[in-house]
Amino acid sequence: MTTSTDFAVRATGLSLRYGRTVALDDVSFTLGTGVTGLLGPNGAGKTTLLRIVATAVTPDSGNLRIFGHDPLTGSGRLAARRRIGYLPQDPGFHRSFTAFEFVDYVAILKELTDRRSRHAEVRRALDAVGLSDRRGDRIRTLSGGSRQRVALAAALVGDPDVLILDEPTVGLDPEQRMRFRELVAEIAEERTVLLSTHQTEDVTSLCREVIVLDHGGVRFSGSPADLTALASGRVWTSSEREPNALVSWRTGTGLFRHVGDPPPGAELIDPTLEDGYLTLVDLAAAGAR
Ligand SMILES: Nc1ncnc2c1ncn2[C@@H]1O[C@H](COP(=O)(O)OP(=O)(O)OP(=O)(O)O)[C@@H](O)[C@H]1O
């Protein structure tokens, strides 16, 4: 029998408006163990959705269960929050804090009141992200990659079962991004991670599931392979721009790459997840035009 506690997170019919702006419209999904990627154009509603799951924002309507707890009730919210770690888009660093001081400050906000056990937990979280030997360094002296690790350590305080990461790889160089992904993959082996990103490579290399939001609604929910397959037989290259393609761009090789309905005899190539994503979002936009 299926119960509401089978999934770490179950959202049903979440909707939220900011004045006349519909940020989320009837969004439903479930999250299990592993990383679920959240993709979508700017303004699609990703941050709003993450804030709701993080229990920082209350939806206008809909239901949310975190391990069966209802965060829309007082007692449920507290129980749900104890299981959640949140890395917001802007972690609000006090740059003169050391890494330890910042994570300790977050631990205090999370109501870890006993100083000795709190400090042990802060050291554990910094150790988990590989920053044990940098814990006395001021945040302003750390690289972007190390700063993101500090933010992740703060999210890991209290050993949450659900991690919510809002665009954590922005501003990282390729090596830092790869290291950060590796860390998240390790954490997600036994936890549930919801990760919003504009980097389709984050999804390809990390995610078991992917949700595409657009204009506040879920346009796709499934595996990265299924999202990629939406562009199967719809990607080709040629030496000219293709005015009838959904999207067409010049690549570094001098050839143009196109996604759309290929003309007869087109030189088809294997799609990437980005092609699948572009197909989905452009088809939706074409439908709305
Ligand atoms: N506090 C707010 N007040 C008014 N409108 C808001 C507020 N926060 C978000 N919005 C609007 O709600 C919609 C969804 O915004 P949201 O930040 O959730 O999108 P997003 O997918 O995270 O975008 P991005 O990829 O740019 O971060 C947008 O139209 C945005 O302008």
Automatic annotation (TrEMBL):
Transport listed as a keyword: yes
SMART domains named in the record: AAA (SM00382)
SUPFAM superfamilies, A to Z: P-loop containing nucleoside triphosphate hydrolases
Native source organism of the sequence: Cryptosporangium minutisporangium
GO MF term list: ATP binding
Family: Belongs to the ABC transporter superfamily.
Organism placement in taxonomy: Bacteria, Bacillati, Actinomycetota, Actinomycetes, Cryptosporangiales
Protein name: ABC transporter ATP-binding protein
Domain named ABC transporter: residues: 9-240
Keywords from the UniProt entry: ATP-binding, Nucleotide-binding, Transport
Pfam families: ABC_tran
